[in-house]
Amino acid sequence: MSDPLPADAGRPKAPRWAIWLPLVLFVGFVALVMIGLYRPADRTVASALVGKPMPALTLPAALPDRPGLAGADIANGRPHLVNIFASWCIPCRVEAPQLGAMARAGVPVMGISVRDSAENLQGFLKENGDPYQRIGADDDGKVQLALGSSGVPETYVIDGKGVIRYQHIGEIRPEHVPMILEKLKEAGQ
Questions:
Q1: pLDDT by residue (tens digit) across 33-90?
Q2: Which CATH class is domain 58-187?
Q3: What's the longest Cα–Cα distance across the chain?
Q4: What is the spatial distance between Cα 137 and Cα 163, in angstroms, rounded to a whole number?
Q5: SS3 content of the chain, % helix, strand, coil (to 5)
Q6: Pairing of strands 132-138, 109-114
Q7: Residue 74, burial from CB neighbour count under 10 angstroms (0-12, 13-18, 19+)
Q8: Half-sphere exposure (Cβ direction) of 99: Cα atoms closer than 13 Å
Q9: Sign for the pseudo-dihedral over CA of 110, 113, 119, 124
């Protein structure tokens, strides 16, 4: 009687290194993750409109006691901040003190209120301060999209000719104020 053949008889044997392949792949994956953690990719969104004229806009007043916002209000020979905000926006509340401080320092701040009601907007301004000279109502978000805005809040430095010089994505924090004031100074030259 002959010896029975082993169960793996007839199958080709895997090379010895193949047993280590899963471990090598796992170590490689961990190495890539660690590199990503120590050197994250630059996720800054560059505006395609910086250096270009502000899109034409004519927005009705967001509040009955305040004028709306038109392109001529911005291109008047003096640099401005144009802030896109909403009463329902939590980060907008975070940046309100910084906008107020800049307005008190003489910076003209214009507002574009996105998808908001006059009642909610009045409550927001009463609670968080009101730095705005004008507030235009962008009820359908068309101006926001024309500006290339990805959300609220966003703030633009506009020179006296109506050209966008800087776009700040997200809320303005205290540490951002000196840089934004410098951008305004550059826009005035």
A1: 888 777 765 555 556 778 899 888 899 999 999 999 998 888 888 999 999 999 999 9
A2: alpha beta
A3: 107
A4: 21
A5: 40, 20, 40
A6: parallel
A7: buried
A8: 32
A9: negative
